[in-house]
Fold DNA-binding response regulator, LuxR family.
Amino acid sequence: MFPYDYGSDTPETLGTVYVVDDDDAVRDSLKWLLEASDYRVELYDSGENFIAKYDPKAIAVLVLDVRMPGMSGLEVQEHLLARNAELPIIFITGHGDVSMAVNALKRGAVDFIEKPFEQAALKQLVERMLQEARERHMEKERRSLNEALLAKLTPREQQVLERIINGRLNKQ
């Protein structure tokens, strides 16, 4: 496995932005905004539809409306927490209150933005969260690769490696 080449980014390597909002106009405007930056955007009109299609292995960020018919944004967040999903969540709402925002942030949301939101600020936040998600993904891949390589060592090679790690020569 070679180090990640940031110079050859495609929409797939940049990451996916999941947009979950019951308002067609909000979904469409976010799709336009984010696709203009070459992100892969997936739109969902409900929390239930998103949960049914969510890929936990994807490098992604979730832009999530708080108040929707059926499953609310906070319920989607709860569901993802129960699945131990490492998905950054940016809440957007037209009807937020302080206690709702505090609750969402305490449960791990990265931000809570009121509609109408400043497009440049949201885009910058999405970019930062996707960069962090890419870095976490690469770290997991490095760790898996290292574990696979260590598993291939013979018992003697493992013994030598342990001694080197502990600052001893392999003959000591």
